[in-house]
Write a structure and sequence with these properties.
Elements lengths: L13 H11 L4 E3 L5 E3 L20 E3 L3 H10 L4 E7 L3 E7 L5 E7 L8
Parallel strand pairs: 3-6
Antiparallel strand pairs: 1-2, 4-5, 5-6
Length: 116
């Protein structure tokens, strides 16, 4: 029934952010027309958390080794916006997108249906 997930990152500087996902993160993409890139993502998982603050949605990138990933991204000129912090369920950090926004990345420690 469900064949995938289409996530959207909104940005006032969409071209720069698309370039980041293409050139820095190396994500494969397809041109949907007029340079509108749709990126392939690694396998994904979805969690539903309770909230007392209303409904909202978040998008995090996942990695196997947060320190190595941040080092590799830093070598490519990516700014670390939030240093790694142990959240119990994983180690969370933030990277700075070219439009100045923070994008979260984490090394999970929880059981995952997609990770070995």
């Amino acid at each position: 029934m469900i064949t995938g997930v289409h996530a959207i990152v909104f940005s006032e500087e969409a071209e720069k952010v698309r370039g980041f996902f293409r050139d820095v993160l190396g994500l494969r993409s397809a041109d949907a027309g007029d340079g509108w890139l749709i990126f392939a993502l690694p396998p994904a998982e979805l969690a539903v958390h309770p909230s007392d603050e209303g409904s909202r949605h978040q998008l995090y990138l996942m990695c196997d080794d947060i320190e190595a990933t941040l080092a590799e991204l830093t070598e490519k000129g990516v700014q670390v916006a939030s240093e790694p912090s142990d959240q119990g369920w994983g180690v969370l950090a933030g990277i700075r997108l070219p439009d100045g926004t923070e994008f979260f990345i984490y090394e999970p420690r929880h059981a995952s249906p997609i990770l070995p």
